[in-house]
Structure to design on (233 residues):
C-alpha cells in the first residue's frame, strides 16, 4: 500500500502523541528521579532517519520519527529491511505478526526503550542494541505498554480517517531475493529526493555491499537487498 506524504506526516504526529501519552506519561516520574527536570520532545522528520538522542544542555530527550520510514513501512517489499520487523518476528512481539500497525506501534516502543536505556546509563558507543536494551523492550511488551500504544495508535488513526493497515505482511524469501544480485551489478536505492547509486562489490547473507558511483563515488553502503533496484548499464 502506498500512502501520501500528508498521511505519513499525520501518522508521525499520532506516533508522537502515543509516545508522549502512553509511554512517557507513566515513566516520567521515574525518569525525573534519575535526572531532574528532564523533558521529552517528539517530532516528525522529513527523511527516513528515526532515532532517539539526548541534549544535555536542555536536559531534553528527543525522538524523531522519519516521514519516509512511515511510508516505507506501508510497503511489503521494504519491510524486511527494517529492524523493527525482524524484532517482531524473532522476539514474538504482538505474537510475531508483522503488520503496518504493529510496525509503527513497535517503532514507538523501540525508540522509547532507547530513552530508558540512556537514563539507566546502559547505552554505550558501539553497544546500542545490547542485552540491557532488549530487557527494556521486552518489558514494554510484557507489561502491556506496547499493546496500549498499539490500541491508542489504531484508535487515533481511525478517528482521524487515516488508513492504517493491520493485515499480516508475509516475510520475503531471503535466499530467493539474494539470488537476484551478483557482484558487478549496477544498482540504485534510496528515495526520489535522495537517490543513491553504485556497484555491488559483495553479496552478504541479507545485504549487499555497494561501492558508490557517480555523485556517490567514494562512499560505501551496506544495503538490505529488498531496497535495491537495478540500473541500466
Amino acid at each position: 500500500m502506498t500512502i501520501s506524504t500528508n498521511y505519513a506526516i499525520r501518522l508521525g504526529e499520532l506516533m508522537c502523541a502515543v509516545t508522549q501519552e502512553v509511554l512517557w506519561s507513566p515513566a516520567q516520574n521515574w525518569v525525573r528521579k534519575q535526572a531532574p527536570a528532564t523533558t521529552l520532545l517528539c517530532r516528525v522528520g522529513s527523511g527516513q532517519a528515526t532515532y532517539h538522542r539526548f541534549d544535555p544542555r536542555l536536559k531534553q530527550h528527543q525522538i524523531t520519527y522519519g516521514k519516509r520510514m512511515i511510508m516505507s513501512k506501508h510497503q511489503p517489499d521494504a519491510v524486511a529491511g527494517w529492524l523493527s520487523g525482524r524484532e517482531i518476528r524473532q522476539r514474538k512481539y504482538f505474537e510475531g505478526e508483522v503488520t503496518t500497525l504493529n510496525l509503527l506501534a513497535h517503532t514507538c516502543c523501540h525508540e522509547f526503550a532507547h530513552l530508558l536505556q540512556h537514563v539507566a546509563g546502559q547505552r554505550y558507543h558501539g553497544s546500542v542494541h545490547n542485552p540491557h536494551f532488549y530487557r527494556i523492550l521486552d518489558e514494554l511488551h510484557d507489561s502491556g505498554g506496547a499493546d496500549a500504544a498499539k490500541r491508542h495508535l489504531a484508535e487515533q488513526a481511525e478517528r482521524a480517517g487515516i488508513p492504517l493497515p493491520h493485515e499480516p505482511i508475509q516475510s520475503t524469501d531471503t535466499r530467493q531475493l539474494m539470488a537476484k544480485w551478483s557482484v558487478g551489478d549496477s544498482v540504485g536505492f534510496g528515495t526520489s529526493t535522495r537517490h543513491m547509486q553504485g556497484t555491488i562489490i559483495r553479496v552478504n547473507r541479507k545485504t549487499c555491499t555497494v561501492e558508490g558511483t557517480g555523485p556517490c563515488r567514494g562512499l560505501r553502503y551496506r544495503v538490505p537487498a529488498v531496497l535495491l533496484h537495478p540500473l541500466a548499464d
Notes: Residues 174-230 form a domain with the SH3 type barrels. fold (CATH 2.30.30.140).
